[in-house]
Amino acid sequence: MLEDAIWPKDSQIIGLPSGAQMSYARLGRLKEVGQHWVYFHGTSGSRLGGKAKPKYAENQGVRIITVDRSGYGHSSLHDRRILGFIKDVEHLLDYHGIQEFKMLGVS
């Protein structure tokens, strides 16, 4: 559990195949069913940038997964190239059994 989480029970850290760690939070629907969105924060942001979206997610019946990029929040500093990040997100989505999702991002 992470201390500064929006909903502490929903913020977690996952180990990546590279040995690094990625932190993320899950907002909205309580069950892993229905539509999934993945929120990508901009520079100097974190997974907590999605904290204004839980009510929207609940009202729309979606699950939002917000992730900390490498070196941000509680994610360890590792491969910061875009292809490395894509592999990290792919691992996270596979872990949760998510095959289809929409993306939401800010910069």
Task: Give a structural overview.
The chain has 107 residues and is an alpha/beta fold. The chain has one domain (8-105): Rossmann fold. Helix content is 20%, strand content 27%. It contains 2 helices and 5 strands; from the N terminus they run βββαβαβ. Strands 1-2-4-3-5 form a 5-stranded mixed β-sheet. It is globular and about 35 Å long. Mean pLDDT is 77; it is low at 1-8.
Task: List the topology elements.
Blueprint (H helix, E strand, L loop, with lengths): L10 E5 L5 E8 L6 E6 L13 H7 L1 E6 L14 H14 L6 E4 L2
Parallel strand pairs: 3-4, 3-5
Antiparallel strand pairs: 1-2, 2-4
Main beta-sheet strand count, sense and barrel state? 5 strands, mixed
How many discrete domains?
1
How much helicity do the residues have? 10-25%
Average predicted local confidence, pLDDT: 77
CATH homologous superfamily placement: Alpha/Beta hydrolase fold, catalytic domain
Compact summary:
This protein is 20% helix and 27% strand.
Features:
107 residues; alpha/beta; 5-stranded mixed β-sheet; 2 helices; 5 strands; disordered N terminus
